[in-house]
Design a protein that fits this description.
The chain is 70% helix and 0% strand. It contains 5 helices and no strands. It is elongated, with a radius of gyration of 24 Å. It starts with a helix and ends in a 13-residue tail after the last helix.
């Protein structure tokens, strides 16, 4: 009976170690990146909503005040920083990525955020109505692509219907 007891104890210890190592492995390759992705996705959603007043009202650097230019530059840099954070996240993704979009989609969303960061200003000295209208159409497409690539909920995408 002593041999069976020792084998049972040893089997219990070994299986406990295997379960612990496996759970840590899953945590490192999937759960931690998933949590990081959700945080970045939340930041992107917040940025798109919070800075809509900027990208919906692009400014002409020639006619803007210094304070307006400074504020728009700050917003532009924050948008670019978040795009870079999103792009850097791609390097942490493993093959196991349930709940995390494909690398290409994350890269596309990052590229669109960089494009958005460049869209807060009109061409210098060009505040014509048609030019601004063209900018707004391009910005709307960028926002739509960012939302769809990252899976950010957009009520307009489901037809505006409450579920």
């Amino acid at each position: 009976m002593g041999i069976y007891t020792a084998a049972t104890v040893l089997g219990t210890v070994v299986s406990g170690v295997v379960v612990y190592v496996a759970s840590e492995y899953v945590k490192e390759i999937w759960l931690s990146p998933l949590q990081e992705y959700k945080k970045i996705k939340q930041k992107v959603s917040y940025l798109l909503n919070n800075y809509a007043c900027y990208y919906s009202n692009v400014v002409d650097p020639e006619s803007a005040t210094e304070e307006e230019k400074k504020e728009y530059r700050r917003v532009s840099l924050e948008t670019r920083d978040l795009a870079c954070e999103l792009r850097a996240f791609i390097e942490t993704i493993s093959r196991v990525r349930f709940g995390i979009p494909q690398k290409d989609k994350i890269y596309d969303a990052s590229a669109e955020l960089i494009g958005l960061s460049n869209s807060y200003f009109t061409a210098y000295g060009d505040s014509r109505r048609q030019q601004k209208k063209d900018v707004y159409g391009a910005i709307g497409k960028r926002i739509y692509k960012i939302n769809s690539c990252l899976g950010i909920y957009d009520r307009q995408e489901d037809g505006g219907q409450k579920k």
